Amino acid sequence: MALSTPTASATLHYAGPAPRWSHEVFLSFRGIDTRKGITSDIYDRLQNMRGIITFMDDQELEVGDVISPRLLTAIKESRFAIVVLSQHYASSSWCLEELTTIFQCMKDNNRILPLFYQVEPSHVRYQKGNFEVAFTKHESRQSIAKVKQWRDALQKVANLSGWDSKNYVSDKELVEDIVKLVWSRVLQARIENESTTRDFGSFKATRMAMGKVMTALKNDQVTVIGVHGMGGVGKTTMVKHVGAQARNNGLFDKVIMAVVSQSPDLKKIQAQLAEMLALKLEENTEEGRAYILKERIMRGNRILIILDDIWRKIELSSIGIPSNNELQMRNSKILLTTRIMHVCEDMDTQAKITLNILSEEDSLNLFLKKARMSFHESTEIYKVARKVVQKCGGLPIALIAVARALGDKDLEEWKEAAQRLQVSQPSNPEDERHVFECIKLSYDYLRSNDAKSCFLLCCLFPEDYEIPTEDLLKYGVGIGLFQDSNTMQEARARVELVVKSLKASSLLLEPKEKGCVRMHDVIRDVAISISLLEDGQRFFVKAGCELMEWPKINAHEGYSVISLMKNKISKLPEELAGFSMWWQQKQRNFSTLIARS
After folding, report:
1. Calpha distance 312→404 (Å, rounded)
2. Domains of the chain (ranges plus CATH)?
3. What pTM, to 2 d.p., does this model score?
4. CA–CA distance, 555 with 548 (Å, rounded to integer)
5. 554 vs 351: which has the higher pLDDT
6. What angle do CA 197, 203, 208 make, to 5 degrees?
7. Contact 536/567 with Cβ under 8 angstroms?
8. At what angle do helices 396-406 and 360-371 cross, to 10 degrees?
């Protein structure tokens, strides 16, 4: 019924492959009622503050009953629609036609979210009050079939779970609730879309592992499942794919996910899980937040909790995750990933599944696809490509990085790359040194020094960190990059171009937040190692390591940058007293100090 606020446990069911969305939210509203009020507030909070791509028609005049091609495309290419039903919404034949089109394009009603703004839901459902007045006029101007179509659309939208403005003290509180719920839905949909647009499911190794995970998820006796595999083998992508598949198959009502990493930040983990549950954690202490989170999980049913990148045993109760027995009572499960086999045992997993490296055939197919090239088997470059692929160790992250680096190079450069990777080939397949060489090769093929330096700057941030491009600009200028830019605006544009090229090279990832970028933890490890080999670029990085005191640093190592971001250091050593915890230039033997708490 329309009187209740939508809950985070409401499901989103997508049929078949996920389409490519141009917009995440489409706003349907009556311009004269709400354009300059609550609709603008919703748009601002979604688009500008949350980075949720939102379509809001900027046309002041609504003419005719036919939806324009531009609006029709926007509706078709939107994940969700928020329908702002206001006093004079039904007076506009344009709005009614738009609402009808939304229902035609969005067969899954869970994608349509109604807001009853200063109107009674029953007035919308049965066309009473202002809605009755509006339809009296429509009946004298429109065909019976058209009017019936519009009435049906209003009845449908009134029967959906939505927000009722009279249940809120202020518009601010209402908008906050809308944004919280929409954000949780968008996060869920992004994970599903990301997993279904990847092609890893076509590989034998991933198909086998995914089949085993799905079997374990269907087993009522199994509550905790562990996925083990080398760094860069595709564990994260696989569990996202499995989560989306399990949800679409009806195994779970909700799939939530958090990244744990080498240095777990409990508050960050709690926040990630809470966001996907549309839960606001206002408590300051980890214990208080854990209590609220656990309470919310126990109120739900059939929740799959994915914990990615665990390095050592972690007490799930400290996060707010219920015990195995409690989860079993709610038909919920945990799916975790780790590089270390014994972590599966430490976490009491009842099913342990290994994700193996890709076969040579699958490796070659992925490599050629990402290189955007096709060769006849008889050609010399095809033979060289096979050699290059063999040296990538069956790891998708290495295959993709090298493919992107060599895609536009000539035969001689391919031969040189193959020879270089051959020399560095480790005798032990489990040795991750070949990962370093593959990523280093991609790094060396970057066209500009600014791109190389900007890439290295990204390793200064903690694992899985949303790196603001504005910070890259500040740090870059601080170490002397972008010297050919005359203004900060030019330098900012240069950073954007560099980040774009690094993403195209698969050295950086798409962000979850607007104005940011991310770096895979394997590539981050390689970037730190590269910095130690580069002249004048040695980095000391202990970001997000929960340090309580200033670490011991050998001044003779000649570090140019120190990064101690996201630690708990409350006091600088005496020799650094009086200096900013942000960053300073020319301090003793360090050209840059980055020690942000």
Report:
1. 33
2. 23-185 (3.40.50.10140), 198-354 (3.40.50.300), 360-444 (1.10.8), 452-594 (no CATH)
3. 0.74
4. 20
5. 351
6. 110
7. no
8. 40
